[in-house]
Amino acid sequence: MIEVRDLHRHFGGFHAVDGASLSIDKGTITGLIGPNGAGKSTLFNVIAGVLPPTSGQVLMEGEEITGLKPHELFDRGLLRTFQIAHEFHSMTVRENLMMVPPGQTGETLWNTWFSRKQIAAEEAALRDKADEVLDFLTISHLADERAGNLSGGQKKLLELGRTMMVDARVVFLDEVGAGVNRTLLGTIGDAIVRLNKERGYTFCLIEHDMDFIGRLCDPVIVMAEGHVLAEGSAEEVMANEQVIEAYLGTGLKNKGAA
User: Can you tell me where the transmembrane regions are (predicted)?
Assistant: First the structure.
């Protein structure tokens, strides 16, 4: 579904992404792991149009999408979440969800004067959709809570819910478990699996929690120093000597040898 070909992203003399090539197959939950500074988030930013590449290509279902803007990719069903959740903190959880779909009739001043019935009908439908999403994520009890009052894990669930308000096809999740307690992380994991199995979402996620990666992801791609180091199942990459040295550290490798 997504193919990355020899992708580079330089910041001056620093090569954050340095010739990365990988594929994300439709219908998979792909894990992307690697040490800090490996280029994972920069790779996500280039794929999702947040940053332009220095060189290389990104394709979606065979069509080149290199350099397209985030809103253009959004319209194609490619969405990206961030390590730090980006919610409208003064609005309720339900209102955050209702804000997502583009092209709403009430977005123009003219329509607010002359299309009130249409706007009311749209808002009612969006409210129903938002409530369905909240129920799916088991956070209906937070519908009227201000988003800024949510815990870190609840904000991550809200971000996942926002992808459900549109026809998402492939979602890039950046450190979905960061700052999330184990109970909520399990809830998030369950939601990702259900969206994958029941609604056909394709996911690629950056995560440092290897138990979480092992539970959800196949395949797992390992990055180091801006390029792809290894790929396989979670068990295969964790047994890879290069991965052990680059990702887990030589200390652990030597300990295992002892």
Answer: none
